[in-house]
Request: fold
Amino acid sequence: MKINIDEAGLENIKKWFADYVDTFKKGDPEIQENIELKEEHTYRVCKEILTIGKKLGLKDDELRLAEIIALLHDVGRFEQYARYRTFNDSKSVNHAGLGIEIILRNGVLGNLDSRIQALVVKAIGYHNQVSLPADEAGTYLFYSRLLRDADKLDIWKVVTDYYHRKGGKRNYGLELELPDTPGVSTEVLDDIRKKRTVNMKNILNLNDFKLLQMSWIFDINFKPSLDIIKERHYLEKIRAVLPQSEEIDDLFPSV
Reply:
């Protein structure tokens, strides 16, 4: 697939995104805090995807495409939180699907080639799925994998900073309103023993959620991403805030 995206096309989408997010910056301080959390996350995912893309040797047009995908991947989060006061898709709406509706309704991709539009939409739709479809076209899978890696890198930053904060109140939105109770779920342990990403349906408490975040390591696609994870010690930082348990130690023996 030939990719042709100029700087002006990218800048137009950046301006739309900034203007759109600004419409949610008002009213309740709790909403404001979480809107800003997702806005900052989005901009960092853009940086992460460019870092990975450059290390993989992507050309300028390919990097601009990657940045557009990263910029729009969580656009559904803002309306989701404003409407439902949660980031938990199971308690509200699939934020990826909502994001696609918003993008299409506003004609955000209207100046791009139709094949590029389809690629952006598919990458956004796939980014929060447990796994990618094996029968998808190679270019679509590549950019979907690129986004999934970049997204995980920054979510790890957000949650590890949060888990290791000194003082401060709990952010229940970031914790998906999960109870901070003892123990871990058998189904979560089974998923990790089979070296697969934990199924969100098996998450019952905050410990399960932390183990889900550790299990993302099984869904990292590119070596530059793995190198960054090791440099930043993300898995070790999450392990440090889980219960001391041989059962958990056995799941990640190198952490």
Q: What stands out?
A: The chain has two domains: 1-166, 178-255.
